[in-house]
Design a protein that fits this description.
One of its GO terms (biological process) is carboxylic acid transmembrane transport. Among the domains are: 218 residues, no CATH class; 130 residues, no CATH class. It has 504 residues and is mostly helical. It starts with 8 loop residues before the first helix and ends with a helix. It is built from 24 helices and no strands.
Length: 504
């Protein structure tokens, strides 16, 4: 890898020498604004969203704690609102927001200065770091191009069929090999397609389209089977504690229609939202084919790298419940380094550390919301409002609990969301004489609707890594899918399919 200067001072001087006096003055004026703001008004305009987030957070912290919420929970609630505003508006760089989470916890007494950094370390954080490194290793040996060629041969070269194929592959894979493995397989393919199409600057819409197809594909598929994620297994355990035992096939029968309907919906919506610059990928197929012929068969090092990747995927499927997905991913990376398949300096250069830090902060905030009781208090308030609106049982209760879960899961990981809300909602269902099975499965399903924020799920954080997406892209694309998913959960499953199955 050659060294490239981030900023060349000589080039800057040449531009100033060529530019006229007026242009030089404008440039210097602009520079002085950012280094030394010329006016308070300019600074306020530049940082208005950050100031709004700080103001709302301060207001929440200064007000008395509501009934049922501890002081620590009030502080956690203020942090939660602050982070949401910053993530939605990109008031400051997102990794910087993650750092604020840790500092806030220490200054408000939510965690000690020794405990706060520990909260940033989680198996999911190590997993994201391992996935980004694994992707860099596969790209070094052009393995992603070979897999991309196979996928394109299978789907055809028309962009509509390619996107439908990516969404369908991710959806069906995520239900059985977990969404982590599905994203890991497809991410290098997506990067390869964008790169061979001319890169992000030439095809920005195609880049966003492919990345979001991967992320949203695994979301809609990870709920189709109990093996699709920890949230599903957790809900099975909660239902079992109520003597409600549901089999693997029964779960699939209940949820699979949602996945089947959402595959074409996601494909159609993303294709229309991000109209791709390239309509046919036959040129890319030819370019990959020529590159493969020029490079010849896989080298011994490439075969070893591929074998390590496949071993990691197998480990995720069969051993993640014992060792964790993060430990398994990093074991594969360490093995690759020991075998000299990849240099650590290369991994350090290619890994998007800001993404790792971003998700670490999100995990820490989720733990804080649970430990302080803020998550349970929020759920209780939503349910209280539902009771006031005379929404207390049946289909209306399902709609409320699913909506609450979907909103909360966009600011916490899906597992903690189900852990925090699942017991509450199952108890509410039991007391209101509504099927706990229906409420439980719909809660697990809605916890997958992590369309809106980068921190909502590892899939979003991983596809954000290559730098093709901005935070507002998730909000722009995910807002409609969020509403459609809730509508399908209530209307298609709750009011139609589950009645046919006799669950009501």
């Amino acid at each position: 890898m050659g060294k490239r200067k981030i900023f060349n001072l000589d080039d800057y001087r040449k531009r100033d020498a060529v530019a006229g006096p007026d242009q030089q003055g404008k440039r210097r004026g602009k520079l002085s604004f950012y280094v030394f703001p010329g006016s308070i008004r300019g600074l306020l305009k530049e940082r208005k969203w950050l100031l709004l987030a700080l103001l709302v957070m301060a207001l929440i912290c200064l007000l008395p704690a509501p009934r049922g919420l501890t002081v620590e929970g009030k502080y956690a609630l203020g942090l939660w609102v602050f982070v949401i505003i910053c993530f939605l508006t990109e008031a400051i760089p997102l990794p910087a927001t993650a750092i604020i989470i840790g500092c806030y916890q220490v200054f408000t007494g939510l965690a000690g200065f020794r405990d706060a950094p520990r909260a940033f370390m989680d198996d999911a954080v190590i997993f994201i770091m391992g996935v980004l490194m694994m992707g860099a290793m596969l790209m070094k040996y052009n393995i992603h191009n070979r897999v991309a060629l196979f996928v394109l041969k299978l789907c055809g070269t028309r962009i509509e069929r390619v996107i439908l194929g990516i969404v369908a592959f991710c959806a069906f894979s995520a239900g059985f090999i977990t969404e982590h493995a599905a994203v890991m397989i497809m991410l290098p393919i997506g990067v390869g397609i964008v790169s061979l199409s001319g890169g992000y600057k030439k095809v920005p819409n195609l880049a966003k389209l492919v990345m979001l197809s991967i992320a949203y594909g695994v979301m809609i598929g990870s709920v189709a089977a109990p093996s699709g994620g920890a949230r599903n297994a957790l809900m099975l355990g909660l239902l079992s504690s109520l003597n409600i035992n549901i089999g693997y096939g029964q779960w699939m029968l209940m949820v699979m229609p949602f996945t089947l309907v959402m595959i074409p919906v996601v494909s159609y919506w993303l294709l229309n939202l991000f109209t791709p610059e390239v309509k046919d990928l036959s040129g890319i197929v030819q370019a990959i084919r020529e590159e493969m012929e020029a490079s010849g068969p896989l080298t011994v090092q490439a075969r070893l790298a591929l074998a390590i990747f496949l071993a990691v995927v197998v480990g995720w499927i069969f051993a993640s419940h014992r060792y964790g997905v993060g430990t398994i991913a990093m074991t594969g990376i360490l093995l690759a380094v020991v075998l000299h398949l990849v240099d650590w300096s290369y991994l350090q250069q290619k890994t998007q550390w800001g993404v790792v830090l971003l998700y670490a902060g999100a995990i820490s905030m989720g733990k804080t919301l649970i430990s302080t009781g803020a998550a349970s208090w929020l759920a209780g308030q939503f349910l209280h409002l539902a009771e006031v609106a005379e929404v207390s049982q049946g289909l209306s209760l399902l709609a409320v609990t699913a909506t609450v879960t979907a909103l909360v899961t966009n600011t916490m990981a899906d597992g903690p969301t189900v852990a925090a809300l699942g017991p509450i909602f199952l108890k509410v269902a039991e007391l209101s004489r509504t099927s706990p099975l229906v409420i439980g499965v719909s809660t697990s399903l809605a916890s997958a609707f992590s369309y809106l924020l980068i921190i909502a799920t590892p899939a979003n954080a991983i596809v954000y890594g290559p730098g093709y997406l901005e935070a507002r892209d998730f909000l722009k694309a995910g807002g409609v899918l969020f509403l459609v998913s809730l509508l399908l959960t209530v209307a298609l499953l709750g009011n139609f399919w589950w009645r046919i199955l006799g669950l009501w």
